[in-house]
Amino acid sequence: MQPDNLTDVIEFVLFGFQGSLKQRGLLFCLLLVAFWATLCGNLLIVLLVSTSNNLHTPMYFFISQLSISDILITSDIVPNLLRTLLNNGGTITFINCMIQFYFFCAAEMFECLLLMVMSYHRYVAICNPLRYSCIMTNGHCMRLVVSSWLISFSTAFVDTFSASRLKFCGSKIIDHLLCDLVPLQEISCSDTFPIKLQLYLLSIPFVIIPSLIIVISYVKIIHAILQIPSNISRQKAFSTCSSHLIVVSIFYWTMFSVYVVPTKGRTLTMSKILSLLYSVFTPLINPIIYSLRNKDIIKAIQEAIDM
Questions:
Q1: What is the pTM for the complete model shown?
Q2: What DSSP assignment string belongs to 130-197?
């Protein structure tokens, strides 16, 4: 590495989870099972939504897009995490580190926007049912999803470019699970204030504003549901919203904890556990929540088995 070019980094060392061989072996097995369960569960949802006529509705279209995003996150993070567990750490090239960060960042940003879109969809369905079919057309749903993907991939490129310009003149050891902006700036000898400022600014359109819109939407949704005279109709309306609320709560809680709440005083182990929650645990439970609690998807699975 030339003295006048401190950004010419060849590779980093990812620590992952450190521990005894028995501990790492147990965690490896758990993550391997979670990895394949996540892929199979989300691929099943994508396949069912694309083939079953009963699931050709806006709600299931959005759920299938959430599954695609979860597959992208899991495939991007878990294989390398499993490798570091086997070897008690491992190297990752600078290019692969930036590629991992790019796709991880794009998928996370997309989920933030998609969960906001899904709350808007629930709002229209419950608070404005007479205009639902006019508002949530196939074309409008497609535009919402495509624009969310484009915004996410474009913004992730800006984030990745900023990360690639960091200077690393000391340790190349990333004591974390993945190449993320926070651990990268911690080992950088650059002035990280612009990166931190960028991180907080991006949290406004991708974390804070979507979460506010989701809260406002559900306040109005709950108010509308409480006005329904029939207890059965109220329970059905609450049931259609509960799955989405569970997913939103888990996802945004971990996002706020990692990117919005100050990291001062947080241990490395806690940071790794939080990262594990939103990169492995959330993609795993999403298809479970949406399938086990959804009669239409269960019916589509039974029809596919009977074919």
A1: 0.90
A2: GGHHHHS-HHHHHHHHHHHHHHHHHHHHHHHHHHHT----S--EE-SSS--HHHHHHS--S--HHHHH
